[in-house]
């Protein structure tokens, strides 16, 4: 079965997020090997995570999709939705700690390197696993759960959020940032 338009939109956003995860992992590996990586790379990755992964993307899941799934009979607190919400929060914790470490690194505190590396790696591992669970388990479950009118309602909810994001130029800004981070990490090599 082909995913609905709403689910397809979320999966496309996952592919953008994965580009940044790859870049972040490569930069963290370099920093761990004492290769100079500008602290701003991690601050910009943190901006992407907060603005796009957590902002544009998780907002659709938490603000529209999960509520529609609960209304259609899925349990809210235990089960898949509860796990996804917990992981979203865990991702926010990793991101805040990575940002704090990058600011410390920028201020010349070399001991902050470990904080940046461990939280970047923690975020990457969490999100890769999280995305796989959503793509392979949660999203197909949502597609099966929803009738056509429910699919349409979810899509309308997503479109409202997309219009709000578009007013701020968020999609273009974050897609461009993802491309810049991927290119900067590529230039770092190996």
Characteristic terms for this protein:
6 helices, mainly alpha, single chain, Four Helix Bundle (Hemerythrin (Met), subunit A)
What topology emerges from the helices and strands here?
Layout: H1 5-32, H2 39-71, H3 80-106, H4 112-145, H5 148-167, H6 170-188
Helix pairs in contact: 1-2, 1-4, 1-6, 2-3, 2-5, 2-6, 3-4
Can you describe what's shown?
It contains six helices and no strands. The chain is mainly α and 190 residues long. The protein has one domain: Four Helix Bundle (Hemerythrin (Met), subunit A) (Up-down Bundle), CATH 1.20.120.520. Helix 2 crosses helix 6 and helix 3 runs antiparallel to helix 4. The relative contact order is 0.19.
Shape: elongated
Rg, Å, rounded? 17 Å
* Portion in beta strands: under 5%
Gap between N and C termini: 38 Å
How confident overall, as mean pLDDT? Answer: 94
Number of helices: 6
Number of strands: 0
Low-pLDDT segments = none
CATH topology: Four Helix Bundle (Hemerythrin (Met), subunit A)
Task: Name the CATH superfamily assignment.
Answer: nmb1532 protein domain like
What would a concise description of this structure say?
The chain is mainly alpha-helical and 190 residues long.
């Amino acid at each position: 079965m082909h995913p609905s338009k709403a689910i397809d939109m979320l999966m496309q956003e996952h592919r953008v997020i994965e580009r940044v995860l790859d870049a972040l992992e490569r930069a963290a590996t370099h920093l761990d090997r004492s290769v100079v990586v500008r602290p701003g790379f991690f601050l910009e990755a943190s901006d992407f995570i907060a603005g796009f992964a957590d902002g544009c993307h998780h907002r659709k899941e938490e603000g529209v999709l999960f509520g529609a799934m609960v209304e259609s009979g899925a349990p809210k607190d235990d089960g898949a939705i509860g796990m996804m919400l917990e992981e979203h929060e865990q991702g926010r914790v990793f991101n805040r700690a990575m940002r704090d470490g990058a600011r410390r690194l920028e201020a010349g505190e070399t001991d902050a390197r470990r904080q940046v590396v461990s939280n970047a790696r923690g975020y990457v591992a969490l999100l890769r696993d999280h995305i796989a669970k959503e793509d392979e388990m949660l999203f197909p479950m949502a597609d099966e759960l929803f009738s056509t009118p429910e699919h349409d309602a979810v899509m309308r909810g997503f479109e409202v959020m997309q219009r709000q994001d578009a007013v701020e130029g968020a999609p273009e800004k974050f897609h461009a940032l993802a491309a810049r981070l991927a290119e900067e990490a590529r230039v770092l090599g190996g």
